[in-house]
Amino acid sequence: QVQLAESGGGLVQAGDSLRLSCAASGATFRIGAMGWFRQAPGKEREFVAAINRNGGNAIYADSVKGRFTISTNIAINTGSLQMNSLKPEDTAVYYCAARDFAPYSTSEKDDYAYWGQGTQVTVSS
Prior knowledge:
Oligomer: single chain
Order of helices and strands: EEEEEEEEEEE
Strand content: over 45%
């Protein structure tokens, strides 16, 4: 019912910035909240940030607080993750995800019904 597509990943140096985008299509009215997760090789997929459909109640993993900012623009069915002061440990495939109707931010990956295919972020030291 909902399709998500991430973009904006790339190779940067430590201290640089990247802005990831998540374009939603299909039955976008079903999206109650969206989140970002990341997965490094050999690691579990971990929570990064989440926000409700109206752009409120943003939550962040402790590892990215103060550096990353999540936002939404429901009018154009797009979410964004602004990543500043990137560190090598931020290197991972980043995935956007959307909840089905429930308008509540959550850090639990099992709460998300729809997922993008991921975009690679690599931060060199």
